[in-house]
Amino acid sequence: MPTSILSSRRTMPDIRWSALTHRGNVRPNNEDAFLGLSFDGHDVRFLGKNGEASARATDYVFAVSDGMGGAQSGEFASRVTIDKISHWLPKSFRSAPLGVSINPTELLCEIFHSIHAALLKLGQSYEECRGMGTTLSLCWLTPERMYFGHVGDSRIYHLPKDGGLHQITHDHTHAGWLRRQGKINEREARSHPMRHALNQALGANQHIVDPQVGAVVYEPGDRFLLCSDGLTEGLWDHHLDEFVRSPTAEQQKMSPASCLIHESLERSGRDNLTAMVVETNTAATLPPFAVNR
Questions:
Q1: Which secondary structure element, helix H or strand E, spans residue 203, and what is its range?
Q2: Nearest to residue 135, comparing CAs of 215, 64, 212?
């Protein structure tokens, strides 16, 4: 159902975020990219790796992109994707007349299809870009709810304040489909021979893309984790929950994103890895966290 993003806004708790990307222990370059930005009807602001802000009259976008294509084209694909989000979404927001309802999920579908078309065109126009593509997992945080869009095998998790960890997005792989059908478990999915074979990606010579879009209602104290598959190659779901919710004294010296990257590198690090942790909070619900180091 269409929801007015520009309608009168209820008071929203402040948010804070931390993000980090790393090339890993094996690969010579990093084809991952992440984006954080805030925008309203007037301004667009790019966010640093970590920070906190009031969100009473501002929307926030956080995104993770994992490029592919060999040489430098995977890195280029993920950065083209991030660049298009930073221009398209705020522009669409500003173009909606004040008080007119827009449908966020429809808008996210348009953005995903636009990025897909742009990557296909680049791949057809330049030999060095042929076959390049990327995953994309995006959170659009409004005062009412979190809207998301997703293609590929990067992930978005929801960690409600009262406990639990829920993977919101679908892994667009055969192994991911088998797990959703209950045919294999998490351990079997991690060792499945088709775990990295994407059946959906932006670009990558794929003619049709069907992004997963939706919305999650959240409460103060809830967290969201966005990550590339390189992070989850080293960490099980219970690790993600444990390290974000209950870091040790040593882990508390790092930001949540830094902690996750560090722990994943210790266990694997065969791929590029990226983590973004977004926390909705009031002063009473969440303790301070350290900056990335």
A1: strand 202-203
A2: 64
Please choose, from the candidates 293, 96, 139, the residue with its C-alpha nearest in 3D space to the C-alpha of residue 227. Answer: 139
Bridge partners of 278?
A: 17, 224
Q: What is the mean pLDDT of the chain?
A: 87
From CA 30, how far away is CA 44, in angstroms rounded?
26
Cβ(14)–Cβ(52) under 8 Å? yes
Distance CA 129, CA 7 (A): 42
Residue 176 in 3-state DSSP? Answer: helix
Is residue 187 pLDDT above 60, yes or no? yes
Confidence at residue 86, expressed as pLDDT on a 0 to 100 scale: 83
Given a cut of 80, is residue 6 above it in pLDDT? no
Structural contact between residues 205 and 133, judged by C-beta atoms closer than 8 angstroms: yes
- Domains of the chain: residue spans and CATH: 15-280 (3.60.40.10)
> Cβ distance 173 to 194 under 8 Å?
yes
* Distance, C-alpha 181 to centroid of its chain: 24
Query: Is it the case that residue 132 has pLDDT exceeding 80?
Result: yes
Q: Write out the H or E segment, with its range, that includes residue 85.
A: helix 73-95
